[in-house]
């Protein structure tokens, strides 16, 4: 069976040494009660839950075929119900939520690390509370006080859960063309009718009620994305006293059969004049939904990190135990029939790709988490503005780059197992299947790249990117000159700066230039970001002599020498004309080649 | 349901225009009876079989859970038996085999294209005849005349089938440590005892008998890979008159539950003093097995090509049909609610990655096929020597590079589908799962890279690589200067030449240097090889004005500008010190990070 041990020591290093979390917390009134001892105690609890409760359920739920559907009812895999109860009772659902509504008010830079452990050990399970937390966040930002009072406390106790209902059969990326209708009733409620697909946790048996957040259009709404409203559509209507009332006229028509995350119920939901309640104002639903969506997007990056850490731990253990071949520099274990495969440079290359990805992704998640904490807790308006810009710029990196690199890392870890990596019992192939969705859902990684290059860069003429690069340059200046990561990061700053200018120039004359180079740009910025994280890690480690820290400097150098050079290729590919692609007529693609 | 139409026009272009196949065939006595009309007729027949018979069985076999095992008996998925019968009766098993034993004597440069269609439509099915053909090839090269007479004709009619039994629980890459024993009997036969795992087609219901080719060690054999012998171990012993005799004391203990290729039975085989017959001489078994192994390795490349073509066709069709968003240069289909997603550069980028991979891989497969045909059919000893060197050099590229690029291409095609790519019914996620094994089996791609950099390059001091680069340079000189692929390929020649010299120098002082950079080197040589193929394609297209040919020049330019720049990154990564990786102590990898 697969193993997992939460990387608590590295988490402490990242929070304490790299991001000086305690100083940061002590500097904010709302966070001053949190210290590293509290943080580590929380992480240790989650380490136990992830290892002892949900890890084994991950394999068993996949083996039994995942969530089951019958006559509108979804049964979650064996053990999920008890685990969810335990999770809810532990207060984990509201870990980062407002204390006013029953949450624990913990900072994001801490909750991302707790989340990493659940993503690592059971991504299907994670998707149930995840949607609750996201729905809670959207409601907290946009719902009325009465709505918050009615829904939030029950969501954080786990008695109820949440969903986000966006996609329809014909409308995924392009929400402007959704068809779900909302007709206003005299009592102020709405009748919601339509079909939503790919609804994660859309129906299940873990909670008494499910609070669906549904995008729909009123009859007189403007066309396109400016005419979308957001509605609360509970599975069971809620009486004034908070008890459950009648069943709403909506339900699951089926669940999808998927490549992975089989334990997560992905539902087709049919709304048949179901009673819904407007959140915020008509036609302003997309903004509210994007609070939730942006939260989910950072979560997808953590899904990538979790999978990469899980796969790495198992591959490293396998490589240590597996005896095969001999070292080229002479037999290392003469008493054994063969040396461990760790004597082979190529095996180390695959493992170090994973290890470097884990450590950079974790630092990046905490970095973005800290920026989010600034936006939420800081009283310094300028700092909040700056952090908001940074979060906006880096959300597509967190979602797309962290999941793209995670897939590569997980594929490398699977390869370390040779043929055994392809066999179900080792759990590596499931990890690949479960992870793959992270690149697709909540806006495909291609769409994230469009967001980065368009809304987040071209629209502000590169100002956000320029500020980010300035921050990196200023930080890196504090590093020892002897560290390879210093020159490498400064060089990456210059490369990304220059290619950003190139893109801004090219985009002026050719409105479809950016689309074709967006993914290369996202990877270029992602590589720079990971280089920045290794610079931060190196600064925290450079003065310390213990092997734990010195090995971090070696890993940073490995990244600079063996991973970062990919930047050059992305730059060259952006510089090559992308007009070429658009020259080909549409029928070229399906014509007999 | 997924679609597939064999790319017959491109296959004709590759054979006829690029490789001038008819001239080549007419110049060889044994092939002079084959012309393009015959070749195209064969490919058209296979196009029908692949589309009409086995395509639908691919999805259904996966849905029903693949091959089933019960009490030592393997039942193949519904429809496989009838399809295999039809395949055998069509003479497809022996398409490239010697006419003396019932084969059709067709050249490899043609059979690779027929194989592509089966790999594209049903890789699980393909694995049954594949092992028969490989076993036939090993026997034809190393078995006695009596053995050939006894086994080959029945293999090519499909009455019997074949396997290769190498791997044991503790021994995969390192065959020198296998434990299966062969004890000589007085009658000259051997008693074979041991356990083999991961045996593709090791047990099934498609043929009356299964001829296992088994590696084992005699009691007094030298240690390591110099003491391995090869044995024929039939499932049913064969009487003198060719009829089936008693059941041999061997059989399947279980089958593996895998990520994909579920229709293919991957067996644990237990040999309990089973009767075996030596092939060739004792202790020389590995050479015979490698005839088969090298054949399978080229086949894995074709598996990659087939999957990439299949995924591309489905993605291109989906992109054409899927309406979502609007073109940045203005609405393209005002009569529709949205434009087709082909208006987005990023969608074209993903599709063109697939298309470029398909066309370069296909040309490369035919190129290697032609070299194999020269080794088999040419009477010019120097040409045979040269072709043998070329095949040896390029087999790891065919196996590993074509499958690595295929996985990327298939992942891109899956991504074109958005969320639908993750749902089973579209067949894209199965394509990813089925393809993934091609990078792992028959020697992992990491092991292929070791073969390329070690045995095929360092061992001959780069002579084979130098000859290959000379051939490329001479060919490319004939291209129009206006074609971007010309300068790009010449530049790639210089880059690969220089990095090969660098590797030869570095390897002298550091015996484990090569291992850590091998995969980067394989990808560098792979990129050069694909560039060479696009140079060949461009030369055949440059004088022709029809869109079919002009579009090939655009695709070649796309490759030069958008794919080939990856070469720079691999070169930089090779140049970076790999000693760094080896500095870390073994326990670093499993220590708490």
UniProtKB/TrEMBL annotation, chains A, B:
Keyword Manganese included in the entry's annotation: no
Domain Acyl-CoA oxidase/dehydrogenase middle: 164-273
Domain Acetyl-CoA dehydrogenase-like C-terminal: start-end pairs: 469-585
Matches recorded under InterPro entries: Acyl-CoA_dh-like_C_dom, Acyl-CoA_Oxase/DH_mid-dom, Acyl-CoA_Oxase/DH_mid-dom_sf, AcylCo_DH-like_C, AcylCo_DH/oxidase_C, AcylCoA_DH/ox_N, AcylCoA_DH/ox_N_sf, AcylCoA_DH/oxidase_NM_dom_sf
Domain Acyl-CoA dehydrogenase/oxidase N-terminal stretches: 41-159
Domain Acyl-CoA dehydrogenase/oxidase C-terminal: 283-451
Tree of life domain: Bacteria
One Pfam family from the record: Acyl-CoA_dh_M
Cofactor(s) of this protein: FAD
Keywords in alphabetical order: FAD, Flavoprotein, Oxidoreductase
UniProt family annotation: Belongs to the acyl-CoA dehydrogenase family.
Protein name, entry field: Acyl-CoA dehydrogenase
Organism whose genome encodes this protein: Acinetobacter terrae
């Amino acid at each position: 069976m697969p193993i997992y041990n939460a990387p608590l020591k590295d988490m402490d290093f990242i929070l304490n040494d790299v991001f000086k979390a305690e100083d940061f917390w002590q500097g904010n009134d709302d966070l001053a009660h949190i210290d590293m001892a509290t943080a580590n105690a929380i992480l240790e609890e989650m380490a136990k839950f992830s290892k002892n409760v949900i890890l084994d359920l991950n394999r068993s739920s996949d083996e039994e075929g995942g969530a089951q559907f019958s006559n509108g009812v979804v049964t979650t895999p064996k053990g999920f119900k008890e685990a969810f109860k335990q999770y809810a009772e532990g207060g984990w659902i509201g870990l980062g939520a407002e204390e006013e509504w029953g949450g624990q008010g913990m900072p994001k830079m801490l909750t991302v690390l707790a989340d990493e452990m659940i993503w690592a050990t059971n991504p299907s399970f994670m998707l149930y509370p995840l949607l609750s937390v996201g729905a809670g966040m959207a409601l907290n930002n946009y719902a009325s006080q009465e709505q918050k009072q009615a829904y939030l406390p029950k969501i954080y106790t786990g008695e109820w859960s949440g969903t986000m209902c966006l996609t329809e059969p014909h409308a995924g990326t392009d929400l402007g063309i959704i068809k779900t209708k909302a007709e206003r009733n005299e009592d102020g409620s709405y009748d919601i009718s339509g079909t939503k697909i790919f609804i994660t946790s859309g129906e299940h048996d873990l909670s008494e009620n499910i609070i669906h957040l549904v995008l729909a259009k009123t009859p007189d709404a403007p066309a396109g994305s400016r005419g979308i409203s957001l509605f609360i559509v509970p599975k069971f209507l809620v009486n004034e006293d908070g008890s459950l009332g009648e069943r709403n006229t909506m339900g699951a028509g089926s669940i999808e059969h998927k490549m992975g995350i089989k334990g997560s119920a992905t539902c087709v939901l049919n709304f048949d004049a179901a009673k819904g309640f407007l959140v915020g104002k008509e036609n302003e639903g997309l903004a509210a939904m994007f609070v939730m969506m942006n939260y989910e997007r950072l979560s997808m990056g953590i899904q990538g990190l979790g999978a990469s850490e899980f796969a790495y731990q198992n591959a490293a253990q396998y490589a240590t135990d597996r005896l095969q071949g001999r070292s080229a520099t002479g037999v290392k274990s003469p008493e054994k029939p063969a040396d461990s495969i760790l004597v082979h440079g190529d095996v180390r290359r695959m493992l170090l790709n994973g290890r470097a990805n884990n450590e950079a992704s974790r630092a990046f998640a905490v970095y973005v988490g800290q920026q989010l904490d600034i936006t939420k807790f800081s009283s310094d308006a300028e700092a909040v503005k700056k952090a908001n810009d940074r979060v906006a710029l880096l959300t597509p990196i967190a979602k797309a780059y962290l999941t793209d690199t995670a897939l590569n890392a997980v594929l490398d870890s699977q390869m370390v197992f040779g043929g055994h990596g392809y066999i179900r019992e080792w759990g590596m192939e499931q990890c690949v299947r479960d992870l793959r969705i992270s690149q697709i859902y909540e806006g495909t990684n291609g769409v994230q790249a469009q967001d980065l290059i368009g809304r987040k860069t071209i629209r502000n003429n590169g100002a956000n990117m320029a500020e980010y690069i300035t921050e990196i340059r200023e930080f890196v200046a504090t590093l020892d000159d002897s560290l390879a990561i210093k020159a490498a990061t400064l060089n990456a700053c210059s490369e990304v700066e220059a290619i950003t200018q190139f893109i801004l120039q090219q985009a002026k004359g050719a409105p479809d230039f950016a689309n074709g180079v967006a993914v290369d740009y996202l990877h270029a910025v992602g590589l720079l970001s990971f280089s920045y994280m290794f610079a931060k890690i190196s600064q925290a480690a450079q003065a310390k002599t213990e092997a734990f820290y010195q090995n971090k400097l070696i890993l940073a150098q490995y990244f600079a020498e063996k991973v970062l050079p990919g930047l050059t290729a992305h730059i060259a590919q952006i510089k090559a004309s992308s007009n070429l692609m658009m020259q080909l007529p549409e029928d070229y693609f399906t014509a007999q080649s």
